[in-house]
Amino acid sequence: MADKPQSQCIYCGSWKDKLSREHVIADGLKGTIVLPNASCEVCRDVTSAIELHCLRKMFVVFRNTTGLYSKKHKKRRGSSSDFTITIEENGVETVTEVPINEAPAAFLELHLPVPGLINGAAPTTETQVGFGVRALHTDYQERVMKLGDAGLAFTHFELRPRAFLSMLGKIAYSFAIKQLGRDSFTPLVQPLCLNTETRPNTYVGGDWKPPIETPDRPHDLRFYEHDEYVVVRVQLFSEYTSHAYVVVVGTKLEASNAV
Ligand SMILES: [Zn+2]
Q: Quick one: pLDDT at residue 6?
């Protein structure tokens, strides 16, 4: 009896009979690009836990208030897109109904230096990060104030920079493999994807080029030309002309090896 063909996990390199497919950008963010036979069970558990944190904590307000990324949320709640905010104080519950078109929508943006491999900065174990809240409405503050205490529920963001940087690594790495093939470069970012990289800023950072207008699509992924490295630009929520990040996913193969 012939053995089942084995495939190699893109993260840990182990050979398995069965690997799961990988959404380059999570299904929960309406990512549509899929890499088949990508991840072993162990690695999948790690990368999906990181992704779930980002989706359910960091971007939950944005996903729900825009309605754009909350397919499952809507299904569960039937036809209503409204929010019910319940605040309990001294045993008294106050319920506030917030229609989706009055909700204060915003998402977090991280401000990062250019990846160390690009700008030549010495590797550091510190995660150098600043962040800002990117509001989607010019009257964001008024919307928050108008809701009183319930408005605070919309301004609560839980940021875990390392998880977000890992997710960016996974997006960029799986995109590069999807587009270029597994044997076209030497990967550098598996530890970043698995959240074991101690120097994430070496590989992932902020974009150094002017913003690109891509209002026609939910996200934008593209390669940057570089002599030595495979470099992927990741712009989530590009329809809002959002902040872009850059990931150095691997080293280009020597020309002699590639022929
Ligand atoms: Zn694996």
A: 77
